[in-house]
Amino acid sequence: MALLRKINQVLLFLLIVTLCVILYKKVHKRTVIKNEADVESETPEELEEEIPVVICAAAGRMGAAMAAINSIYSNTDANILFYVVGLRNTLSRIRKWIEHSKLREINFKIVEFNPTVLKGKIRPDASRPELLQPLNFVRFYLPLLIHQHEKVIYLDDDVIVQGDIQELYDTTLALGHAAAFSDDCDLPSTQDIHRLVGLQNTYMGYLDYRKKTIKDLGISPSTCSFNPGVIVANMTEWKHQRITKQLEKWMQKNVEENLYSSSLGGGVATSPMLIVFHGKYSTINPLWHIRHLVVCSGQHQMKTHNGL
Ligand SMILES: *[C@@H]1O[C@H](CO)[C@@H](O)[C@H](O)[C@H]1NC(C)=O
After folding, report:
1. In a domain, 23, yes or no
2. 49 close to ligand 1 (CB < 6 Angstrom)
3. Mainly resides where (predicted)?
4. Nearest residue (CA) to ligand 1, atom 9
């Protein structure tokens, strides 16, 4: 009898141990599966890079800026963070524009640009006061606005993007290049347009080659210009090369010596960039123009109006 009870006890013990093992395995297996599932669902989000896009929203051009933002947002699945830049007195209006439209879903930050940094650096131009809009110079100060990102896209407010902005963001910047632009001569068809309406697509159109300071740069006047209305920039390299300081120097020199052709649209912001980035920029795939993925840009449109 005593022996039978002992055997029973042993059997019971074994049964409990087996149950424990089975239970342990089941729970363990479940957590392993769960972990794998977690990893799978988290990785794409972690890998999906945030694309920072800087756009200015000037008081009288709010609609244009919102159209630009909408064109980007509705043509991509990418995770975009819009930096919408304005002057202090328009910040609340920008917020209203965004939050009272379908753009309320976008991921955005409203950033104030303080125009006092421009003091003494802009030459008054009575004939084209709109070009002296302080926000035209925001592109000179990108590292002041963007802190968390190395690679950044800047777009003029009158750009309409018809392609996936991810492709533009994937533009390769050569080592040592702080920015990429699209060349004004890349497109055969634009040359026709240029001839047609007398548009400039060389440095001669932006710099006053009668001035010694400009001649001393040693840049051929027939060098193809680029369009700084669309910029893909590397903030690390930008800071390293002190691009902002260099641009400010060329603004200041213009105040002192009147170096830039005054007849053109966008010249005030374009000319310093043409000088500072001469021979030191990567190019944005011309397909972006050809396929009309970007319909740009202000200075061209303005000049077209003038020409016509
Ligand atoms: C930006 O520039 C830095 C310094 O030259 C370089 O190490 C880095 O790879 C560049 N990043 C991109 C995205 O081009």
Report:
1. no
2. no
3. membrane
4. 175
Q: Is 19 a member of any domain?
A: no
The answer to whether the CB of 234 is under 6 A from ligand 1 is yes
The Å distance, Cα 282 to ligand 1 centre, comes to 13
Q: What is the DSSP string of 151-167?
A: EEEEE-TT-EE-S-HHH
CA of 234 to the centre of ligand 1 (A): 6
107 Cα–ligand 1 center, Å? 25
pLDDT over 90 at 192, yes or no: no
**Which structural domain, as residue segments, surrounds residue 238?**
51-288
Task: Choose the weakest-confidence range: 57-71, 122-136, 194-208, 289-303.
Answer: 289-303
Residue 260's domain is classified under what CATH number? Answer: 3.90.550.10
Look at residue 40 and tell me if it is in a domain: no
**Count of structural domains, the chain:** 1
Three-state SS at 262: coil
The verdict on the CB of residue 71 being under 6 Å from ligand 1 is no
178 part of a folded domain: yes
The Å distance, Cα 173 to ligand 1 centre, comes to 8
CA pair distance 193, 195, nearest whole angstrom:
5
Instruction: Say which residue, 69 or 306, is predicted with more confidence.
Output: 69
Tell whether ligand 1 has an atom less than 6 A from the beta carbon of residue 99: no
Residues 170 and 163: beta-carbon distance below 8 Å: no
Residue type, 106: I
